[in-house]
């Protein structure tokens, strides 16, 4: 193949195309490894907090205890929403808007209340770190408020003494979570914080490459994540598990019949991993721990058996969505909040990628191969 042919080779979906250099996360799909800035996801999920991982992604190094305390305090101080933003959330809840649409709208409207919104230098790193901190701190407040309002309950004000993960569960349920739930949810946020140049991250970087502002870039990413092929898989996993539970078949028979009918078993397969997603391994352990804590390990047992069957019979392994579904369900989180929870975690990675894009920015502008008609003669409107 000549160099001209290589240049014109079509890569549908940009699969396998290198579009950027990044120091944020590395994925080894053959070994099943995920690394944030040189640290394995296993170490970070078990030893670091979500705030510590945010600091790592945004600043390049793990924080000292003093820096982490200061960062946590700065995040907690930004959780409150302006009254106008809460009024907008109430309107959306009463209009029965979808949770992901609420996340998209709130992300955009937050720019109107950001004190750095009028910074003349759209690429100003200090200003954008402050903007990113506010966006990341406020989106959980908005999501919890929306869910409570649509249930006919009053929003719960943020708790200044709780960390990011525990505070969200507190605002959602109006009670402090137990240690297992808080630790598990924090790990879930860490595990979802970044994952290379996925569709939503690429969307954020494309928007940022035009020198649009940070809120616009994050809004683009939220819209991209709302699509069924990107962010909704864990919801489908839980609906599948509930269908299995309500069936008169045992769960293995249900899976066998579903496959025979041509149905897809949700939560399996990944565009990058050829082995078990390392995040699924960790979340599986946490799903089991939640089951033990509550005295009901049913959801974990269903999942574990289905995983073994799919691996032995079909040669495919679970992705991150497979165990996060039952984990969130055991915490009492409504199924349609699963993808918005993805937002409140991945927003940290999106912001890191935008900051990285602006370090050496170039407008992202790919080409398309024209395959339409040629040499058509134009006819005046009265002759058509």
Average pLDDT number = 93
Helix content: 55-70%
**Sheet/helix structural class:** mainly alpha
Radius of gyration: 22 Å
CATH topology of the largest domain: Citrate Synthase, domain 1
For the sheet with most strands, the description reads: 3 strands, antiparallel
CATH-level-4 superfamily name of the largest domain: Citrate Synthase, domain 1
Tally the beta strands. Answer: 3
Please report the first level of CATH classification, the CATH class of the largest domain.
Mainly Alpha
Oligomer: single chain
What is the end-to-end distance? 45 Å
Q: In terms of per-residue confidence, which ranges show pLDDT below 50 for 5 or more consecutive residues?
A: none
Index terms:
single chain; 384 residues; mainly alpha; Citrate Synthase, domain 1; Cytochrome p450-Terp, domain 2; 2 domains; 3-stranded antiparallel β-sheet; 17 helices
